[in-house]
Queue: 2 jobs
Job 1
Amino acid sequence: MPAALRNRQTEQRYALDPTHSFVIGRSQVAQLRITNGEVAPRHTFMEARPAANGVSWWVWDGGSTNGTRLNGQRLDFEPVALQPGDEIELPGDVVFVFDADIATPSPARTPPLPLEPPAEVLRQVALELLEPVVIRGDYRASPLGHEVRAAVRRAAEGPIDRTLAEALAAVQALDGLDRGDVVGAFRSLLSELDREQPPGHRYVRLTQYLVAVSPDEAGTVLCRRVCERLEAGGDAVPYASLLGASAHEPSLHEVLHRAAALRDRGHVVAREVLRELARTDPSPWWNLLCEHRYPAPLDAPSAAPEGCDTLPARVAQAVRAGTSDPDAGLVAEVVQQLRATAVSDVDKRSALRSLLQDLTGQRPPAGRRF
């Protein structure tokens, strides 16, 4: 018999699907809907997590005003493992008994194992994290409210959740940030997240908002981690698109110049850009590399400079010409990526030439936005 919640008053049972999270609340999208006005739209959350003898179910409160009680003890954002017979109490004397599968009993209460949530769950995570501030306007303890801070701690168990946690923490740490600006930005973000878009685009928008208010090293690291998590979840997007909060997607040409403006860590940013781009479809990578320097199609004839018929020779010449050590390291890494892809030598030379021009200080065409 699968795990289920049983209403103690009516004896009605609600099956728990271990492949999906389970929400109790007033919302129309809640798996177990309660119309009591004292119950929040997403009042209580449950999810299954891997265990040595099957799965274990965990429960936590979603930041509700009136709270959730487990065996008489009020829950917070920290998930608690359920045991057979545990009673979950909601406002209005609504009590559900946790009936576990006898064949695969829940283990002792041990720290949960991290899960890699599917794409649709990522959207729900963002909505849950932002709802206390954006919907209820609770700003206690910080501009984003102590509920969000608690949610951040709870969310730090999964890879993408850690990214969101760091994002919110970075915003909270900003000195002198106007509360209205933060709330306005996240209100807009919530609207973006709630639209029907591919999950990857939601997280591009999330990152763009965060970079807009925190365009420093934390923002750059955040971009990289968001991209890694999107790729792991099958929502790969060019890393360059995550570095721009402007209306257009910046070319790699722009990204590299922006990285160069960061001086001593510019090459680190550029290296991460190239690494992430190389993990995705190589076609847009070459297009980005050559977008402004070489507007002609990549398969157009292109003569290699004298003495640079091979990629190693081209790199060696660039290094001798005065490229700094960090840039030389970047070029070497680019060459490795070039060698690993199935494109022609002409295209490789064109791409590398464009990159080297960027690294040696040439500026993009006038009027381009960064």
Job 2
Amino acid sequence: MTNEKVNVPELRFPGFEGEWEEKKLKNIVELLKDGTHGTHKDTINGPWLLSAKNLKNNRINITNKEITEIDDSQIVKGLNDCEFKIACDVTNPFIGEQGASYVFGPQKGASTELAKSLDKSLNHFADIIKEKYDVAIHNMEGAGAAGGVAGGLCGCLNAELYSGFDLVASSLNLNKVLNSHDIELIITGEGQIDSQTENGKVISGITTLGHRFGIPSIALVGGIQGIANSFYDQGLIAVFSIANKPMTLSQSIANTADLITKQTEQIMRLYSARR
């Protein structure tokens, strides 16, 4: 690891830094067991699980290249009886140029050098998981989601990865909704549209689904960092930013509701003019 200082964005939710204690994890286990009709299945958000306090150490550091083995002898009773379904909005593998470190590291302030070091550490951690549980997460599709948390859950808890959009679409019966209703336009959104958007993000999922039923889509986003031409071939007809003047990220966040409302009005005025 490097001691290089990097500019890391502030935590979005400072109160949730991921310090689950054993008793809280027990509550999760009971929720899974008692809340799912005895099948032990549920969809759970995993990042805080991997950041849980270790009984012997202050933190679990999965990027430490000096890790030699995983000791799960003190695992919470009942955890092995649970079946975890992890909803992911990206398809990135655990390691490599499209993996967690190289793709998401820079978004959190990591330099190219640091991202390379992190990738080597995660590769080592994946080797340890393969040796311990005989699960290969190195190139597993979606294992790089949430900075590699998805891969850790698959390796250590035998979790299954699912497209987050597909899970939501299925629960809402979205195929039936789009096919049976008189819908002529879909307006979707994302914080930022970039090279990652087509790797399982909501915009990609909803535009592709809408395209199957001949419904065009318009995306309303905070920032535009590049749009793949393939998007326009799968039903996306235009992308608009909510910014109405030069502004900082904090200004945009503080005025999001108003900015979305005003830009949506302009979009609908333009769309209505086609008639």
